[in-house]
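User: Some background: our group keeps a shared notebook of sequences we're curious about, and every so often someone picks one and asks for a predicted structure to add to the entry. Today it's my turn. The entry only has the sequence so far, pasted here. Could you supply the structure so I can complete it?
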Amino acid sequence: MPIIRCLTALEVLDSRGRPTVQATCELASGTRGTVSVPSGASTGAAEALELRDGDPARYRGLGCRTAVGHVNGPLNEALSGHDFDSQAVIDRAMLDLDGTPNKSRLGANAILAVSLAFARAVAAERGLPLYRHFASLLAAETGGPEDIAALPRPTVNLFSGGKHAGGQVEIQDVLIASKAATVEAAMAETYAVYQAAADLCRSRYGMRALVADEGGLAPDFPNVETMLDDAVAAIRNAGLAPGRDVALCIDVAASHFYADGRYHLAGEALTSGGMIDRIAVWLDRAPIVSVEDGLAEDDWENWPELRSRLAGRALVLGDDLLTTNPNRIRRAVDAGAADALLLKVNQIGTLTEAAEACRLARQAGWRVVVSARSGETEDDWLTDLAVGWGADALKVGSITRSERLAKWNRLLAIEAETGLPVVNWPG
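Assistant: Of course. Here's the predicted structure to add to the notebook entry:
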């Protein structure tokens, strides 16, 4: 059984220049695993607490010295010298040590960094690729097989708005999903569309290819409809057929323009029914196959209607609604509120809890999309997680910025190593 010799941590910077936590787990064998955890900008209210120092004189209060100190201090003291025969055992030990419902004592960023560092160290000690080890962890949680049947489909950020791009248009992202048969071919088609979109931005908006938090282009769109039309035009200009060769996914992030019971979109104040009608119009306008957070995170009573209206046309994907939280997923399953989970491990804070979230989604017949955050590092463990847990799609941002490319390049490497096909979605 793996025995932890020591845990150490360091404050490092994410892709926005903000601090985050890097942790190293050293086992008694001398094997080490080091992991950096991400941080979100568009966060759901029900997410586990990312502990920040709150000192306005340093990183505007966003420092992570306290979380780092919790790894070097209480977590190291409690876990070092002990053997852990499973991921679930060490994660449970940390949850018990924290003792709060949202990990506010030690910080979800500290706990997750240790959870992941332990997993990487154990994989290395056992001589397993990290994705194989992640597959075994999920199998232990679900009782299912450890086989990996396919690679996740890349969904790549093309245009950004909302909190990722200064709010020049309300919705957060328009993404493209190539239907190519391999990751390699999908990335080549993605590049063609991205460059066509950059050309369009120069000619139509007089804008250089400046990018938002996750690498997407962010011209000053007058409205959402133009954003969608430009995405379709970029696909055509790349010599590809919208819908047949390349589909669109949208992250509406509706909670960020919801107030006083209304959705404030382009000068209108829409009811929930009106918002659902507007999304349906967008699906008529563009080849959209996935709608993420189409309604606000607490607009529970109207999510079933959204799912009903989009059934057979597009996935109803829950992010802020679900926050990778098993309790919220159970509620959504019972209500018929969604049919896909956006899985972000740092929303819940441990691998074991995230595996339970994945299990519940699969048990309900849902699709699973593994996602990065707006604040990322060059660490590529997320790709291994998506492969090992059999995700239908991987969402890490665009094809610019090294913290995004590290994940896509890891997916290309795994494809070359395994020869696995890509998930047949969208069909």
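Suggested note for the entry: The mean pLDDT is 95. DSSP finds 13 helices and 14 strands in the chain.
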